[in-house]
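Researcher: First entry.
Model:
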Amino acid sequence: MSLTAGTRLGPYEILGPLGAGGMGEVYRAKDTRLGRDVAIKVLPADVVQDPDRLARFEREAKAVSALNHPNIVTLYEVATSDIGPYLVLERIEGQSLRQVIAAGPLPLRRLLHLSAQIADGLAKAHGAGIVHRDLKPDNVMVTDDGFAKIVDFGLAKLVFPELDAGPIADATTQVKGTESGLVLGTLGYLSPEQAAGKPADYRADQFALGALMYEMATGERPFRRETFLESLAATIRDEPEPLRSKRADAPPQLAWMVERCLAKDPNDRYASTKDLARDLGDLRDHLSEITRMPPPESPTNPVASSLWRRRSLLIAAAVALALLLGVGGTYEAMRPAGAPSYQPLTFRRGTITGARFAPDSKTVYYSAAFGADESRVFRTSIDGGVESDLVSHVPSAFILSVSHQNELAVLLTNRRNQSGSPGTLARVPALGGTPHPLLEGITDADWLADGESLAVRYADGRLEFPEGHPIPVAARMPRVSPNGKLVAFITGEPTAIEVWDLQGQRHTTFTITFAWGLAWSPDSREVWFSGSDTHSGYDRAIYALGLSGEARLVARVPGPITIQDIAPDGKGALVMSGAGVTSLTVLHAGQTQEQTIDLFGRTDFFTLSDDGRWILAHENREGAEGTYRLATDGSERVNLGPGRALGLSPDGTLALVQRQDQLLLLPTGVGSTTTLPINPGRQPNLNSTAQWSPDGRLFVLFQEGRRGGQVYMLDGQQWLPVTPEGADAGFAVSPNGRWIAAAIAGTTTLYPIDGGQPRPLTGAEGTPIHWSSDGWLFIRSRGQFPTRIYRHEIATGHNQPWREITPADPTGLFEIGAIRIVKDGAVCVYAGTRGLTELFYARGLR
């Protein structure tokens, strides 16, 4: 239905048409209340006539309207009229990026200016859990004053949800060929996973942006072929012609960014669109420095020195990016003298659990868990080659330290790849031999200069420097200075780096939100560490801390980087790239096929609705932090806003969320928010969880540090304790609502809710996670791999094995986190954290 000039839609007066396409017809209109020009988008008839799609559209379009960013067209309102729902959008004076590209390839500065803005807009939306899925030149407007604005954000999925995951042929049929123009108009910007009919996430938008940048640089689409099917096949299979072969003046950094965005495997693209936006912004801001040789650094030329330092940092990031793309060898030939380079030392898929230099600064000892193997100790060299020798006679172990006499300190443990787990400290000759056990219950250690004494860290956090001389601070990752006089370690919350001497005196303290990894400079004057200002630590960089307490930036690259060691000759360092990523796996009774649900990689809590249809999850990834409601079949994801998720009501309609110092009940759909009273003296943390009883009473396990957890019941405006302190991170409510099953020190006890004596259960060792309607208590056994769940029959005390959780691909998996069960075992969901990391030898870090 076309609207004529003068038609009124509520307070909006239609002035004339602006265009039409798969997303509907667009009109220029006047908001008669505010006197401003707006754009009105009327939805396609097939959406209006489908109640389910219409309801989903209206719900999710409201989420899109919450986006507020200068590079995203503002959605003012979602309204309805006699013709159905319509959108009220910001009116843009300008032209589409398609029109801009039609004039020919863009100048580099304008290309980067627009690309960085588009990436900024994408990062904002991705942080809110919203993905475009139809980014193309037609959906980017360039204002008359040169600013990029993304349009139709999120609407591709909202209007055509069948494109979210499904073969492209099916999508073509469902949208009736070219009736909407969506499929044909988008081909060339679809990611390989979209083209192949696989689920797509925010990284599909990165692929589309890579295609846009390629087209802005060359005037050509990277995967355009003669026919539709050939273009589709090229998207899935072929690599585009190198950017610099078509645009000689394009800096290598731009080519690497485009190649990374256009990677076939989504895991090879950026882990965060925020990182992509930052890289593009850095390249734009330093383009003039990169496209000309800067003046040499000179003590008398501070301006030149500043430019050179900034350029070096940028090139450091570009080199790391090149390594991630597998083109580090190509870069080495063109790397300016003095710029950092990164040489890969590991070439197998797995987790690096430690790395140290030998005294010759060329031999490297590292421990790693490759594939399904446990962590083992290997030897390699920085002089070339890709082969690593397994250190003989050393069983499952982590490398801790290498002495000046070339003797290894290792931690013998049966944990696959989880650093920080207690084990047996042993010393091993560098050329191999039987480990000689020294101490039990150790998590870390480092040699002193004499090669005989060690600083040791026990499982309870005690640090002795050296053995027998305690330091009165709970410590992690102790590293002894090369001169043997100082020890550095990580401690506290918030995290701090501290340096102490042999006399037990503190020398230096530096506080930062997150720290992981320490190494001393050869002259014992600096401690290098990997740190971040975010709690997840994903964007950590390498810093150097002087003994005076001042820190300086050493290196920042896209993604996490962790310092492992600095060579005794000072010419290089060992760094690890990569970090842990958490995903949720859904198991249905009677099915062997697992279904994985990825949020943003830092899911630190989740729970289930009683019917098994909904997951409430808390995401801790910077830029995307908040509470999300997910469908267990992967069909829906809704961002409920900021706050830490604690529990989901049985029917899935209410989410208990901690937001700063408030406890809130948020509606997952339509409804109002309720504020609950705070439990005096008890605050939720990462292990806190909540459940409802069948009669609607709310129970929360408040978990606090060493005090352990304690289950409370909300009675009106008061929190009443149900269990004593010390409860493990899990509990279950009985089907009749009269008992709480909780474990203290691994032994399960039934606690009466309305008064009475606790009832210990014999033989129920582990953590209760579900209480079935027929009297079985599902209990998680202690231990990680494999993770076993058994059923305990309360009436008889009989135990029965129920399920053994063994992921199909154990590579890099170091933890099975929370496990939730509902519907008497019909649905089981567990969290698995996987760390896939690589080891590099870095030259030129200063």
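Researcher: Second entry.
Model:
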Amino acid sequence: MSLAVQQSTAGNPTQALYASLNGAQKPGEKELSPQDRFLKLLVTQLKNQDPLNPMDNAQMTSQLAQISTVDGIEKLNATLKMILQGSNENQAMQAAALVGHGVLVPGNGLSLSGGMAIGGLELAEPADRVTVTIRDANGAAVRTIELGALAAGSRGFAWDGLTDSGAQAADGMYSISISAQRGENKLQATALQMGVVSSVVRTGQGVGLNVGALGMFGMQDVRQIL
């Protein structure tokens, strides 16, 4: 903040005060707010101005406008901080309600248990044909599922554990890949994996969801609640 200092006829106390206000804070002293510091400097300046060359009205008005601007900015920052805190609390409550629920989050894992598995996908655009390919741990394709035409957005799908040959696949971890087309054009498609939210964790970036073995995800990563 710029503050014009008039030359004093007695040792320039304004500069001394300015130095003390901006120097090291003494132990036990309350830190001055920008408004208090500005006002002390302005009062000292008025007291010690040169009578032959006093501060003009335009200069004083300009400095008062500066302090008004600083005060407004600080109030705005305080209001934004309160809004952010309220938003974080609301997000934490929403996240807590997900504990114990299944969610679809980005990832290509697919867990087969008891002959049943649930996966998902997200399309950026409508597609004429969507195909899900399920692979085993060695990368070999075991099942191809044709989902037909789908609209843009996210959705889940179920796998009964049967391979393309009709045999029952062993329980365990598999992976999926998504192919989407409209006409002859390939479209962007994202694989989603299903997990159960076990706990909620506060992080420096907000609220995190612990989705078991899948790891940590943000609220923005949840594509669907099952």
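Model: Note on the second entry: The helical segments are 13-22, 34-47, 57-96.
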